[in-house]
Amino acid sequence: MNTGPQNDWFDKDFYKTLGVSKDASDAEIKKAYRKLARKYHPDANPGDENAEEKFKEIGQAHQVLSDKESRAQYDQVRAMGGGARFSAGSGGPGGAAGGGFDDVFSDLFGGGGRTRTRTTYTGGGDVPPDLADLLGGFGGGFGGGGYGGYQPPVKGGDIKSSTTLSFTEAINGASVKLNMPGGKPLTVRTPIGVKDGQKIRLAGKGKTSPNGGEPGDVILTVHVRPHPVFTRDGDNLRVELPISFDEAALGAEVKVPTLGGTPVKVKVAPGTPSGRTLRVRGKGVKTKKGTGDLLATVQIVVPKNLSKEAKAAVESFRTATEGEDPRAGLLDKAKAS
Asked: The J domain covers which part of the protein (predicted)?
């Protein structure tokens, strides 16, 4: 007698596959299915053929038992079949079949005159195509939507949001309130030292999954307003430090501002040129990795309006330094290149 895949389908106990009783509620079936699907999902068991086969069986069992009509039909088939095997063609001598699909379904679906239509199954799954049609389209094997027609739990969609912080808030961290699609605001704390344009992922705060998977995330883009004095260079802060000509020429001790703190004093060495950078350690951006420095770049300020006395002093200085040429060798270097 031919004992093809259709016989195996009739032998399968879908309730046992899901580990539930025959009078289990829809909620119990759904809960058992989700638990087993996560356990035996191929992504969680790469290369495990036994887990993959178990996953297919779970998907097929759920697909049948989760639908009220197909579950009722399955229960009838199991009751009438009694666990016996069914042949797909003429089995015994003289072409007499020992009870085929047509016998079962003529009884099940009202074939009162015992008129039979011979079904032919050519393989390719646990449920014959024609039988799958009769039972509402559920079938074995790999369906177009996953294993055995099972749609694996998918992650919910992400929600994109943005916020604008002041320069100081970005450096120190800040609490911001985001308006979410559902109307309920979400309050989050930005990391210390967040940068302009940086994206922050808030795990599990996005859209819910359509089929029991993990919720999506919120992707928060941070914009930072510029500061009137400081700029950021990695974990360092930069500031331009104006000094007078005499401070640059003779040397001096000057105050440098810090972000949100008291000024610090730095020494300007005699003969300091414009553009030289002075480093103040530990006055930059604080992060988990450490704290950056404050970089003060010297800019010599030339007075626009000189008093009579100041002008005379500058003229005296020019006379005293007449032999010095700050552009010495510049023209020769230009020609050589």
From this structure: 13-78
